[in-house]
Amino acid sequence: MRVDPRLAAYILILIGLAAAGPAQVTAERDDATRDLSELITRLGDDDYTVRDLATRSILALGPDVVEMLRERLKSESDPEIHHRIQFILDNLVVPSHAVMVVRAALDSGLFSGDLITHVNARRVRNSAELRRLLNRDNAPLGAMCRVTGPEGPREIGPLRLTEIESAFDYVAPRGPLISRAVRLYADGFVERAYELLETIPSTIPDNELSPGLLARIAYTAGDAKRALALLAGHADAVQPGTDEWYSPSQLDLLGPGKAPFDLEWRMFSEGPEPAYASRSDPDLRVQRILVPARRYDAALLRAAQLWWTTFRPSIGADNAHTRTAGNQLAVIGWMLSEMGLRSECCRVVEPRSQILRSAPFGLRKWIRVDTDAWLPFFRGDEKAALDGFYVDAMNILQRPPPSDDRNIRIRNPHVAARLAFFLYQLPEDARVAEALRVVNFPSHPVLDEYVDWMLLSLHERNQTAIRRDLLAILPNLADAQIARYARDAAMLEYVQDDPDREVLAEARRRIGQSSRSDLWVAIVDAMQLLIDAHADAALRTLSPFRDEPEAAALLSTAEFLSAAPAAAANHRALGDARLAVRAGGSDRYWIILTRRRRLLLFDAQQSLLTAIDKPSEDWFPSPLTWPWIGREPASGRVWAYDRRRIVELTPEREQRMTLGVRSEDVSVFDRVLSRFFSQIADAIAAVPLSAGENGEFRRDEVLEHADYLADPDLPEIAIIQTLERDPRIVHVSLRGGPHLLIDTQSRRAWTSIWVRDQLALDAAPTFFAQAQPPATDAADPVVLLISDHGLIRFDAASETLSRIPLPGDDPFPPLIPESTPYVRQDPRFAYCAKLPHDGGQVYRLTPASGEIEATDMVNQALPEHYFDMRPRAAIRADLDQLLTDAGMPPLQPLIDDAADIVSRWSESR
């Protein structure tokens, strides 16, 4: 919520005056009057800068000077001063009639609840007048508008009418209350917004607050009965605009953000003639509700039903019918991707592509969410993977559609950028240079993603080509991206046999151009010093950053080389180690990374240097997995970071942990979780891994390159998430396994197994964590665990847990966080809900009192990461059950049948 700083300052002045004696108050008022009089005199100064500064200074004083300005205006004869006083009054005093902005384009500079008072210096009194003035003055560049908000008046523009998506009339005396309520709603305080609107004694006219917006506010505040009554007879309000899948509906446009899912669902589904079908889409609810609500399983089921019952029997009946048939397959593939089932998704790509290749569509391949090039790649045929993807991907990369182009749903440049991964598997192929010429220019929309996929493919056989092309790309990257990729270039140079000093210097220069660059400038400096055998200087360079996880491994290396154990002199390879990290609790064992990128174990006590097996066949110290070697300070346990693995290297340890992790999570794992490695390992050991097909790809499809994928036989980190309302708490979830809550300040951790034991539950709970806002920075965290064992309150200070019973027959049903969708900020309340397939009943908790009530709302959404937490084998089994219950084959046979049906139809053409 935006707070007016001038209002706060004015209140403080009033409090100060109230506390002062009468003589002091009189003296201070006299001083203020003299100061204002002097500022008013400056309004007529010959120097424009003086006049302008005086104008701004008076405006900053706020509404408390209005009466003095009005008195001066009556007697002022100087036309310039008179004009400027009138201008100031126009901006300090909100008129009785204006236009209230409810929804505007993100880059317009307007916010919900703002008031537009003037267009090109002409007073505007209502929304009809605003439209007329902007239509007249706006063509084609826009008009300047004077806008008043919590921070005071400001000029916006040039502003076009199309940038104001929803606006109502502002009419005193209701106007201030309504505009504040709209602002509260937009800022996440819907309960306060509704309470404020309820204080308005008379009925609010539709031109000041539409029934649709009032319905949205009422529903989100828990009054569904009133919301539905307000919308009765207006089912057409949920019909989309020009784009059936993505254009906002009228109900969306009536307020900030998105309309409540349940309101949309009811308006689409209820009534004698349900409104969810259209000429081009037999069920708009899939795209407009189920997908944004993350109901991916339900969306897949509905698309599969439409495919099986309507389109499969008569594919090819006509072009429109065939196009919609292809859309159903596309939705199935898309939802499989969202649930992490990439194997099944990739096998839907070709039948969808065969439909697109048929006339009149004229397109080659469906490149929307993934590529079927992975299938031959994991069979070990890198050339077939590239051959099958290159032409189609290049066609998109050469002419990428804009982000608002409908073709992006079929030809997505973000997916086409994955071509880099397959290209660099064959670094000598002429197509590597050809593709680089196409993408390597500053305005290419996916150049950064192209680099990411290039780096993901990094291994010993292609590292020379990748280093060369990364250096060629660096000058063309946007300023906001350059520091990150300059760091990548420095890391890649550091592990070369003969690092190039100029490359490191240029990387350092580019890093230094970014904000907060001191740490990485020091790291690059230390790299060069270590290469030059100046370990002492490297140690001094890194010492100020001793507490920074990103510098820890390099600092350890400088310490090792600066005061190497006596036995190190017996081994030449140790003299130019790129990394040296202690293993265990003493200085006996060290994990060494040599300049030739080999991993070694050095036993300083026995003077032994032995090779360590690489974490995987293609392991390479990649910029994506920095710092390459991690360490838990308390135990001394050490591990190597791989593309999709953490592989423990601790010597003399019988049970070494291997854990699945995405490369994009390596840095946060090292920064946040490395201190809790043993607790994570213990929690994993206590929860057996579920059986079945838990990989992204099925086991029989992965004959080569398994290190690029999540291993189905390993525990896998699903989420590492800082809690929004108390960032000192981190929630870690393993897919299908235990959860952890970590207090990064006290360095304590609690597992879901501990929760199970403390509450005597029959199983470790799966939960979503929601922190209650701390009263002070020093306050201990209180976290709500919204779990499959009901609602649990956790007080970190006393390490106590308590179950909060819900009203009704079952006090502890499975729960998830509620999403209407709406981001709630009011600390007075917390919300949870039953799963949509259990009815979606929403409950509101008042933490201060502990009271919980059932609201008049239904939650239609699943929370973010819901499917990430679940084992893929369980997701596959559930989908099979959903499909067979609906009279269709299980997932695998359904996809195989679709591929066969489409292939035979395509051949017949």
Task: Name some characteristics of this structure.
single chain; Pdz3 Domain; 42% helix; globular; disordered N terminus
Write structural notes for this entry:
The chain has 909 residues and is α+β, with helices and mostly antiparallel strands. Among the domains are: 5-92, no CATH class; 94-209, PDZ domain (Pdz3 Domain, Roll); 211-284, no CATH class; 708-870, no CATH class. Helix content is 42%, strand content 15%. It is built from 35 helices and 26 strands. Strands 1, 2, 3, 4, 5 and 6 form a six-stranded antiparallel β-sheet that branches. Strand 12 and strand 13 form a beta hairpin. The two termini are 60 Å apart. Mean pLDDT is 91; it is low at 1-29.
Provide the low-confidence segments as ranges. 1-29
Residue-averaged pLDDT: 91
Our measurement of the CA-to-CA distance between the termini, rounded to an integer number of angstroms, reads 60 Å
Instruction: Say how many strands there are.
Output: 26
Give the % helix.
40-55%
Rg value: 32 Å
Q: Could you describe the largest sheet, including whether it forms a barrel?
A: 6 strands, antiparallel
- Apparent shape: globular
User: Which structural class do you get from the secondary structure elements?
Assistant: alpha+beta
Query: Number of helix segments?
Result: 35
Q: Which percent range describes the beta-strand content?
A: 5-15%
Summarize the structure.
42% of the residues lie in helices and 15% in strands. The protein contains 35 helices and 26 strands. The strands form six sheets. Strands 1, 2, 3, 4, 5 and 6 form a six-stranded antiparallel beta sheet that branches. The chain has a four-stranded antiparallel beta sheet with strand order 7-8-9-10.
